[in-house]
């Protein structure tokens, strides 16, 4: 599992080490210089003779860049530091000067990037972004912002290495504040920060390399990301003496006359993820049976539910069945996945084993219906904050679908899963995901009710398997929702071997 800690927890972990005189910045900058040198060797064959430009802000992040620059200069790299403020890390600057690095500055009043700076950037093999790190508040401003825009527009674009974090991201909430310099590599110190896992900021980080500088952040992580072996530990694997009822029966109230395919796809997700049995309730029975003869159509005892995928707003009969299922599920402590056309039927307050699976537009509508006035773009700009808000307002576990899927549950349980290719953004893929989440909740229904943080972990596990299934179905190319479902058994088997 990847864990990340917010700025406060990282600083709290640093404090006693700094008080004890541990050379944290020296460790960080040495590791940074080493990574940059190996990057230069990869791209140019050797580090010596190459050109590196440091973008330097006022804090320790700039200090890291300056110290790393000094080390690189001593290895024969031509290093130029661009100071974006009058006040920069004094020791770092002295080290760079002692190593014969060039020092350039951008003027606060200057509206353009000075020629000497533009010239250095034009020939840079690597640009080190040391503008803002853990202490960044809001977006990059002033001359630094002009520099970032200049580098971002340069063609060819230099290789960018972010120091600790890409400057301009919201460290704890994963937002992008104005101009952000997209990095090819981020060298981060001591611990992952939430912005390195959360959308949309994480996309700016490129590849992330974590450097151990001796920090041990305490307390629960802010945001986690499951890996295959974590999912293996969560997945309900049948015992040797299992029969279909103990393995979990899933009630599926999805699809409608207008969207029968959604019923077929939710069922496909559930059966291919390994649920013991599916009971389908709704008008798409014939289509479901044609595709999945193992399904039982009609009411009966279940351990968990999936409701709402492809339920058209004007299908009164299916909406009534959804409402009945929701009332039954909440009243009988049965976990339930609430998707798409069921989201507006959610009761005001529900337990955490109710798992909502909206996309950004649906989450905006759900929050707006609760008096928040949120647009889809607001959700996309700050997915975690909005998923958490929906959890706080409803009590439900919230899985927000997107290129990176964010899950927010009780007691701060938060996951960000980035397991699927962009090809997964295809019609019906969300229906399959709802079925996978349902299969996991049915297989671990009693546990999911007993431990309110477990549904979030199960939802994240479903997102991992669903994302990987898309990559497995057709590596590097397009997939249909059906292809994703078809790939699930092999992906589950692979995960269980991890
Ligand atoms: N504390 C430590 O011992 C270590 C810190 N390290 C580095 O130190 C960084 C944190 O250092 P700082 O706390 O100095 O934080 P930053 O380097 O992020 O700089 C914060 C400073 O920038 C200014 N600032 C904040 N937001 C701004 C904005 N939007 N535009 C312009 N200026 C802004 C503020 O005046 C603040 O003083 C980490 O990210 C990491 O790179 C590493 O060297 C490892 C050890
Ligand atoms: K930075």
From TrEMBL:
Residues 10-221 form the YjeF N-terminal domain. Keywords: ATP-binding, Isomerase, Lyase, Metal-binding, Multifunctional enzyme, NAD, NADP, Nucleotide-binding, Potassium. The keyword Isomerase applies. K(+) binds at residues 61, 129, 167. It comes from the Bacteria. SUPFAM superfamilies: Ribokinase-like, YjeF N-terminal domain-like. Its cofactor is K(+); Mg(2+). Signal peptide: none annotated. AMP binds at residues 401-405, 430. Residues 227-495 form the YjeF C-terminal domain. Gene3D superfamilies: 3.40.1190.20, YjeF N-terminal domain (3.40.50.10260). InterPro entries: Carbohydrate_kinase_pred_CS, CARKD, Nnr, Ribokinase-like, YjeF_N_dom, YjeF_N_dom_sf. It catalyses: (6S)-NADPHX + ADP = AMP + phosphate + NADPH + H(+); (6S)-NADHX + ADP = AMP + phosphate + NADH + H(+); (6R)-NADHX = (6S)-NADHX; (6R)-NADPHX = (6S)-NADPHX. Its EC number is 4.2.1.136, 5.1.99.6. (6S)-NADPHX binds at residues 60-64, 133-139, 164, 262, 310, 359, 431. Binds 1 potassium ion per subunit. Catalyzes the epimerization of the S- and R-forms of NAD(P)HX, a damaged form of NAD(P)H that is a result of enzymatic or heat-dependent hydration. This is a prerequisite for the S-specific NAD(P)H-hydrate dehydratase to allow the repair of both epimers of NAD(P)HX. Catalyzes the dehydration of the S-form of NAD(P)HX at the expense of ADP, which is converted to AMP. Together with NAD(P)HX epimerase, which catalyzes the epimerization of the S- and R-forms, the enzyme allows the repair of both epimers of NAD(P)HX, a damaged form of NAD(P)H that is a result of enzymatic or heat-dependent hydration. Belongs to the NnrD/CARKD family. In the C-terminal section; belongs to the NnrD/CARKD family. NCBIfam families: yjeF_nterm. Homotetramer. This is Bifunctional NAD(P)H-hydrate repair enzyme. The lineage of its organism: Bacteria, Bacillati, Actinomycetota, Actinomycetes, Micrococcales.
